[in-house]
Amino acid sequence: MLPRPMAIRRNIGADVFNVRLLIGLDKLLRAKRRYQGDLSASINDALLAVNLNTVKLVTLQGKKKKTARETQVVLLRRLIRRIKRIADARSCSINQLVNSGLMAYYWKRRTGKLGSPSRPTRHSAKATYHRR
Q1: Would residue 20 count as lying in a domain?
Q2: CA separation (Å) from 63 to 26, 46, 59, 114?
Q3: Tens digits of residue pLDDT in 86-130
Q4: Closest C-alpha among 60, 49, 54, 63 to residue 25
Q5: Pick from 30, 18, 8, 10: which is nearest to 115 by CA?
Q6: What is the DSSP letter of 13?
Q7: pTM for the complete prediction?
Q8: Residue 5 is assigned to a structural domain of this protein
Q9: Which domain holds residue 94?
């Protein structure tokens, strides 16, 4: 007889939340999760650590598609309510506020721009170490 599938147990104070992350941010978070664990936990921690009332808002619309596919994360209910309340007060979308908070949090911890190469390219090395 096959074992019965069990439901995933979640924190009683948490709900599933759908968000579209910026492409560079999505790649960064997924790469970090390979080595450190749960994506939801890191997003939760980051959003709790920044002041969403004053964080600089990022632009999500433009000529080029900037967001990745929708991602489901488990966030604390009180954090979800707070995000919705602040987004309404700031007249921005929930996705814009979440991406802005995550960018502010991870920007401090990373040198360079999200999505840029972590090592210098050949071109930049040539410019720095040219012959005289």
Answers
A1: yes
A2: 19, 29, 11, 19
A3: 999 999 999 999 999 999 998 876 544 444 444 444 444 444 444
A4: 60
A5: 30
A6: T
A7: 0.70
A8: no
A9: 14-128
